[in-house]
Every structure is written in C-alpha cells, then in structure tokens.
Amino acid sequence: MYDLSCADVTKSFGNFTAVRNVSLDIPSGSFFSILGPSGCGKTTLMRMIAGFETPTSGDIRIKGDSVLTLPPNKRNVKMVFQHLALFPMMTVGENIAYGLRCRGESKSDIGPKVARVLDRVGLPGSEDKQIDQLSGGQKQRIAIARCMVLEPDVLLLDEPLGALDLKLREHMKIELKQLQHQFETTFLYITHDQSEALVMSDNVAVMNAGRFEQIGSPKALYDDPSSGFVAGFVGDSNVLSGTLTEVRGDEAQVMLDGGGLILGRVCDASKAGDKVEVFLRPESLRLGAGAEGTMMAGKVESLLFNGASSRVLIRVDDQLIEVADPEQSSSLVKGADAQVRWSADRARIFARRSA
Ligand SMILES: Nc1ncnc2c1ncn2[C@@H]1O[C@H](COP(=O)(O)OP(=O)(O)O)[C@@H](O)[C@H]1O
Ligand SMILES: [Mg+2]
C-alpha cells in the first residue's frame, strides 16, 4: 500500500513539457526526495500532487485512490513552502489552530491538539509567542506543526530550507529527518541540493529536464548511478572526457581527449567509438604507483586540509584531479611528482552528457 503514487504523469504548458512520464510509489511513513536542478519540473510535479495544477495525462493516487477530480482542500496532503508563509500577525498557537478552525473544529478540541503538536516539534508551551520572536529553525518547526496538526497522509515540502543560512540548513536537515520519524508521516521533499536529499531520504528520485533519471536509495544512487547525469549530480566526481576505444567484458579502454589511455567500466549502453565521460570519485583514488591504464601521472597542486574530508589536488595535464587518500595527504609537498591510481571497476564510463 502506497501513501502516494504517480503513474505516467505528464504536464505540458503549451508546447513545452515541464514534467514527462513521471511515475513513483511512496511507501507509507517514508521520506522520499525529488532531487534535480532548478527548472527541471519539481515544483510543477508537487503542485499537481497538491491539486494546484492538473496533469495533461497520467494519474495521481493518495492511499490508493485517484485524486485527479478532487480540489486541493479535499486532498489529504499539506504543503510547506520555501518561505514558510506563517501569518506574522498571529501568535504561534493561532497559526497552528488556523487550519483546525477553518475545518470547523470546536475550541475544546483545538487547544489540546495545538499543545500536543507543539510538544512533538519540541516547542511545548509556546502558544502565546509571536512569530517574530522565533529563530529561523523554530519558524521551520512551527510551519511543519501547522501542517501536521491536520494529520495529512503526505506532507509536501518544496525546498523549505532554501531561505536559511548554511549552518542552520545543516542543522535542519537532521532535525527534519527526526521530525519525519517522530510523526511517522510520509514526507515528499523537493530540493536541488544533493546533500539534503542524501542525508534525509529513504529514497530519492533524480529528476532532469522533466524526467526521472533514476529512483533509488541514497547509497544506490551514489554507488550505482545509471547515467552520467546522476553520476555527476549525486556526490563529487572527477570527470574525464574521452572516446571509448575498446570494450572487453567488464573492462573498457578510453582514449582521453587530453591524451592517454585509461581503463574503466562501462555503466550504460556506450560502445566503441562513442564519446564518453569517465567518473572517478575522490575516495576511489589513491596516490602511488599503479598498473598501466589505471594510473595518471601529475604533480601535487595543493593540499586542502579539512579534517576527515581532506583532499589533495593533483594536476594532470590541464585538469585538476581531486583525491581523498587519508594515508597520503600529510606527507605530500606542493609541486612534487605524484601518481593517481584506481581500480578499473571504480572508474565509471557513461555516454557524454549533452552540454
Ligand atoms: N504556469 C506555467 N506556465 C508555463 N511554464 C511554466 C509554468 N510553471 C512552470 N513552468 C516552467 O516549467 C519548468 C519547470 O518549472 P518548475 O517546476 O518550477 O521547476 P523547479 O521547481 O524544478 O525549479 C520551468 O521551465 C518553468 O518555467
Ligand atoms: Mg521549484
């Protein structure tokens, strides 16, 4: 049983298609993210789910029932917007009670419900506070409490952390995940920030130009991207352009545009002669001598110390290669010769992305 399903949903504006054949199924109580660059169609998809836009084709189901004919207020979903949209002239308690009052619930029911939801978001007893007395993080929690008090089947969050500064965003990522867990309600979260999606989600759909490129757990997307777009969008990678010259079983050879032959693994339908890109994660690289085809010689350009996330930049021809090799970083000298090596199966080869 899914809390939310989309089946082949498409939305066109005139002859522009913003969302193309999108399908998803979100199991009850899970945290699902849609991750994609600005303009790829995330908000349009969410607005269709909430009922503010009508799909050109396809179906949307909440708890198994199609909602296409229902107006927004008859769908049991709630939406948290980027700018939260709290009412500044009302107290915290009035903000949270608003939806219950609109539903015509009695005063004697509303008070305890507001108190209970404030408790659950960690702000007990703050009914009488003014909105402008709250910190950014507290406003966020009130915005969520205001939706959750209505007990939606699905909470939709459209880049809700976008307006916060970096430090608070880092903190709110963890807090949002905990809140979702607390309420055991399905969250559909949209973002262009891959680290938000990876940290919080049970599953992520990576969206590009109106389509879903891949749906999977954060680990599956990171370890087994199905396209160059996903490999490039999820996590950090060094990307080398070249031409696929030979494929032998699991191993393939690429002639780099900058010269030199390297070995890797083809991860899509690319074949000999195709223009490709080779993706190398910094943590898949080591410094030191390696076999032909699985190493490149260069010079140490700089050491970027950042505790456990320290990196070395190695200049190979006109390209900088980022290496995360915890054992080597401390002993390197800027300008020294260095070799970057990898095991061929960690170099992922995909068709070159269109520019
Ligand atoms: N009402 C509309 N009319 C025409 N084009 C629209 C409309 N709404 C969105 N679009 C277009 O659809 C594309 C996707 O927009 P949007 O869903 O807001 O992307 P995202 O939320 O991923 O940044 C954009 O090119 C946008 O200009
Ligand atoms: Mg948007």
Bound small molecules, deduplicated: adenosine-5'-diphosphate, magnesium ion
N/C terminus separation? 40 Å
User: Count of DSSP helices?
Assistant: 8
The proportion of residues in beta strands is: 35-45%
CATH third-level topology of the largest domain: Rossmann fold
Q: How do the helices and strands follow one another from N- to C-terminus?
A: EEEHEEEHHHEHEHEEHHEEEEEEEEEE
Helix content: 10-25%
- For CATH, the homologous superfamily of the largest domain is named as P-loop containing nucleotide triphosphate hydrolases
Oligomer: single chain
Number of domains: 2
Structure notes:
A hairpin with a 2-residue loop joins strand 17 and strand 18. The two termini are about 40 Å apart. Helix content is about 25%, strand content about 35%. The radius of gyration is 24 Å and the shape is elongated. The chain contains eight helices and 20 strands. With about 350 residues, it is α+β, with helices and mostly antiparallel strands. The model has no long low-confidence stretch (mean pLDDT about 95). The structure holds adenosine-5'-diphosphate and magnesium ion. Magnesium ion binds next to helix 1.
